[in-house]
Amino acid sequence: VQGDIRRYKLSDKARRLAPDARASDFALESLNLGIAHRWRDQTAPVEYQSGLLVGATRYGGEHYSDQARVYFGINRKLASPTTIGFVLSGDRVRGPLAPHADSLTAGFSLMHRHRSGTVLGARLSFSRSVSERDVSDYQDMRLDLLAEPSWRILGADPELGISLRSRDYDSFELFSSSGRQDREVGVYMDLNFAQAEFYGFTPIVSFHASRTTSNIGLFEVDRYGV
Length: 226
What we know:
Layout: E1 2-6, H1 12-17, E2 28-39, E3 46-59, E4 62-79, E5 82-94, E6 101-113, E7 119-131, E8 138-148, E9 157-169, E10 180-192, E11 204-214, E12 221-225
Antiparallel strand pairs: 1-2, 2-3, 3-4, 4-5, 5-6, 6-7, 7-8, 8-9, 9-10, 10-11, 11-12
């Protein structure tokens, strides 16, 4: 189960520029339900995984989109402390207000456990989204560098990471004749309270911050969240 709720506050400048706009016009809620299956032969070094995720999104109080994702992945141990992974996923977005889009993502990962217990890793993904609307027609590349220290914070197992993302739109006619290029840098910390496990469910608290720069000023954004 995944849920996302976003609320906005209009600045004084925004109120002057758009006196009829309300912060609730930009409110977003999404809910996704999924199932995943992981399996491997008892003695094999390869683990397989597959999954399905379906959900819906509301924007400004109205039904915005329906979305679905399917994926398949493989994890293989190269040596006792090192694991390499590959995942392929497909997404489809439809709905009364959302741009219809189909996308394909290929991801690679490399994880290494140090003798101290600390895990170091990297993830690299490439995405291609196809749509008749330029806002959903793009190429995306993302790199994540992460660490899972052996020590705990407030009794939780931490994961620390930094992410770099590049997203290019071939066309963005409303604002630019040369397309749109976004660049994003983000940092995050997840706290996994494994001691609070209940029937296999574990609470995770995530802190994250990111900055996006773009050749179109409208899409330059600073984000902070818990």
